[in-house]
Specification:
Length: 266
């Protein structure tokens, strides 16, 4: 279960209950900083700055040191280093290795100094904030281990980039450009259009000229009536041809074609 993140006010209240903080003067002379509650600073000094026989109580098997006898007896079961050393050397009874110094060193003002209340609260709050952040990181690490107990699985093949290609657009179409006239040659569509216009013009002129000639010869009214009467078109052969060729005679096609071209009057 995830622990709730504490506010700065809550951490300050907890820091005040810890009491005063102490700083190791041995580390301070070496340019280091070790600040904690008094008991932990004393254990630090005994472990790193004093000889083994200078500690009030100590263990010759794992080099554990303490200022009281009770922690010395408990470390046999709680201290992992002591259990590992006893297992490596096949030691069942650790009593002979537990010692009490006959002339222990007494810690005092030369070894540590007491911080003010304000400095103590500020130091403890900073430590608790670091521990809180470290706890959150550990929580994420445990969650990751639960999801991937064997580590991140490796892929059988390397990841390849997506091979999707953009759609290919057709090239832009341009309207056809008329072929230019070169060397006296005219494109075929132009020739066809010119021929059609010329044919229509000639037909109109021919009909107009023929109609004008007939009007001068027969008059306008007589021309229209005679042309619109099919009886005016000779159906038999001329008298000069005789009666023998009357069955094979055919009227001139030009007269019938002219009759079909003239408009009908009502």
């Amino acid at each position: 279960m995830q622990r709730a993140t504490k506010t700065t006010e809550e951490l300050e209240k907890m820091a005040k209950h810890k009491g005063r903080a102490y700083e190791c003067l041995h580390c301070s002379r070496q340019g280091k900083t070790v600040i904690d509650v008094k008991s932990r600073v004393e254990d630090h000094i005994l472990k790193y700055h004093l000889g083994l026989d200078q500690a009030p109580f100590y263990c010759t098997l794992c080099l554990f040191r303490s200022t009281e006898k009770k922690p010395l007896l408990e470390h046999v079961f709680r201290h992992s280093r002591h259990r590992q050393e006893a297992q490596n050397k096949n030691i069942v009874d650790s009593t002979p290795y537990l010692k009490e110094s006959q002339n222990p060193y007494k810690l005092g003002s030369a070894d540590y100094r007491q911080l003010s209340q304000e400095e103590s609260v500020k130091t403890f709050v900073g430590k608790m904030l670091q521990n809180q952040e470290r706890s959150q990181q550990d929580l994420l690490g445990r969650a990751f281990d639960e999801v991937f107990p064997n580590g991140i699985p490796e892929l059988d093949s390397p990841v390849q980039e997506c091979a999707i290609q953009p759609p290919t657009l057709p090239p832009p179409t341009t309207p056809p450009v008329p072929m230019p006239i070169r060397g006296g040659q005219t494109p075929q569509p132009v020739i066809q259009k010119a021929a059609s216009q010329t044919s229509n013009m000639l037909t109109t002129l021919l009909f107009s000229g023929l109609q004008h000639t007939l009007q001068q010869s027969f008059g306008a009214s007589g021309l229209m009536n005679s042309l619109q009467t099919p009886d005016m078109i000779p159906t038999g052969p001329p008298s000069c041809c005789g009666s023998a060729s009357s069955e094979a005679y055919k009227p001139p096609t030009e007269q019938r074609r002219m009759h079909e071209m003239l408009p009908t009057t009502t």
